[in-house]
Amino acid sequence: MYQYIIRRLLIIIPTLFGVTVIVFGIINLAPGSPVEQRIQQLRFGGMGSNAETSTDAKDSAISEEVIEALRKQYGFDKPVHIRYWIWLKNLSRLDFGESFTYEEPVLDVIVSKFPVSLQFGVVSLLLSYLICVPLGVFKAIKHGTKFDLASSFMLFAMYSVPPFMLGILLIVFFAGGSFLDIFPIGELYSDMYEELGFFDKILDRLHHFILPLSCYLIGQFTVLTMLMKNSLLEEIKKDYVRTARAKGVSERKIYLKHALRNALIPIVTGIGGFLMIFFAGSLLLETIFQLDGIGLLGYQSVLSRDYNVIMGLVFIQSLLMLIGNLISDMAYVLVDPRIDFK
Q1: 116: exposed, middle or buried (C-beta count within 10 Å: 0-12, 13-18, 19+)?
Q2: Which of 10, 56, 273, 296 has the highest count of CB atoms within 10 angstroms of its CB?
Q3: What is d(CA 66, CA 74) in angstroms, rounded to the nearest whole number?
Q4: DSSP assignment of 174-190, as one string?
Q5: CB burial string 302-333: b at 16+ within 10 A, e below
Q6: What's the pLDDT at 341?
Q7: Which of helix, strand or coil describes residue 162?
Q8: Of 225, 93, 94, whose CA–CA distance to 158 is shortest?
Q9: Domains in the chain, start-ordered, CATH in brackets?
């Protein structure tokens, strides 16, 4: 087991190298570098209503010396492979460079977006497993009953609604759109949050969380619940369950003691994903609910060609995903001792 873990940890290094090389190459091949965008800002930023000003006049206003200074400032006076090598050397010191847009260290920019993504990620992960796993088990026990059919209908109805569409509908009906004005949108707490008591702060958070959290969870609930149910139903058809029934073991004990542990094996594949809660983000939901999180940061960085932020996000997310996959494999062994990685 320890040798397997060491091998997997060693594999992470070339995998990250490959991912970063590909992403670095793609973003540098894409048209519209930060230098070009900065030049465009200098040319057209002050035009205002004088839209008829000729391009040639604007071009002449920016000398070659200024353009060369911009290229040097952003590091584009060097070949691509040299820039990548410099990025790798800085990475060894956990230095992702400075954001072209925010003019701050990339790590500080990413960390500043954590509150939105981390809070929604943690809460959605906990609620998903705490609700969906017991619900899936109960649906398996009550398979074919009215409860099972009714809950399945509700789950699939929820799954069929796109999260961003649900967000729009919730805002229209409950956030002052056209009907009720019950829930706020934007930010994670009220302006007077610091003056509230402990329990009032919790209620204030919940008040801001309900609408966006509903959109984050709507799809996860159905997938995880049905996976748990179907996995448990598959287990109770096996020979060891028939043997337990023949020995007179109660149905409750068969489901919860014998079959449940094996049925959890497909579920643990998502356990390693808990690391990704630090980067849980949805561009559409963050835009709809006016939340400044990781999803919106990634989108804006691509539009503004903020290469350092893009590379920082890609590297950290890839690293967390690879470590999460390793944790999922280790969880397999804990759930099923028959599994042994050599």
Answers
A1: buried
A2: 296
A3: 12
A4: HBSSSS-B-S--SSSS-
A5: eebbbbbbbbbbbbbbbebbbbbbbebbbbbe
A6: 64
A7: coil
A8: 225
A9: 16-112 (no CATH), 114-292 (1.10.3720)
